[in-house]
# Entry
Amino acid sequence: MNRLLLLPLLLALVFLAPQLGSRADELPVPETATKPEPPKPVDLVICLDTSGSMQGLINAARQKLWSVVSELATAKPTPDLRVALLTYGSPGNDEAGHVILQSDLTRDLDLISEKLFAMTTRGGEEYVGRVVAHALDRLTWSRSDAVRIVFVAGNESADQDPVKPFREQARAAAARTIVVNAIYCGGADDGDASGYRELAALGKGRFAHIDHDHGTVAIATPYDKELAELSAAINKTYVAYGLVAKEARARQVAQDENAEAAGAPAAAERASAKAGKLYRNGAWDLVDKMGEEGFDLAKVAEADLPEELKKIEPEKRLAWLEAKKAERAKIQARILELSKLRDAHVKVEMDKQQLDDSRALDRALKDAIREQAADGGFEFEAK
# Structure
């Protein structure tokens, strides 16, 4: 090329290069894909007195477990809920102060229900401090920024424990950002109520007094029958796999039956919870497992698959599971639709009959959970 022609070209590149560079800097940078934040944990620990006079408390817990779960399912964002259950007050296991760890923190809500319905009551020492100590030391708690809530419900003096004074245990819980709520089963002016007030104050929680024998409000509605039927129908969309498949499927059915035995309202509330966001069984159900990050059906061992899935050609199995998922979603949508109608009916009936649930176990649980979960960054719709 002629040198005289090359010189202008080189000069043009010198002058244009900075401008090209600045424009390149202005070009949009493609966004990198970010993983969604994992659900924030909520650890809910229920400690129930099982001494001889507490049958009403246990019955209330059996009836209203699913109502409490449904309440928490309305939180935004949806939490990662785990529940633990401890009992105290019945004789036995002297070394542990008559405390029994019924279940460590678990996402298996059917297991918690099973434990509740297996409980019996007997007279014994009610060591409130000891049950709080067990909760602090024996449970596999979530990380410290999780919402971590303990409820202790009983009706005798909180000051009976000679080994683990409740005041020390409440302070220890507060130091670990574990909130301790106290539910006294009796009148607000009873002499023993003051210890529960102090337990809640030191544990940075709430105090409530309930009528454990007559305070639970359960109203039958025209929607209960269909809700119970849908609760049974949704079970058919579960695809049990792995070593615990048979046991888990049987537990699910058994807890349906337990809820029905507790009354039509309890069965309806269980149905509503099964349609909610917190009834998840990925540990044994492939449809729920599909929704977990990194799920790969091909990595599930053939021996762990249910017989109904083994009969399907491998390349068609995922589509079959998707069909089950769609079927479940349809049933859940109908349950939630009926549940809204049921809630409205219950509200009207409570007003009509002038019923008050302010001294009910589930109201004490729900009010504290709402407040403390909100402190932890969750939001609930106004009531």
The radius of gyration is 27 Å. Strands lie at 41-49, 80-88, 100-106, 147-154, 179-185, 204-210.
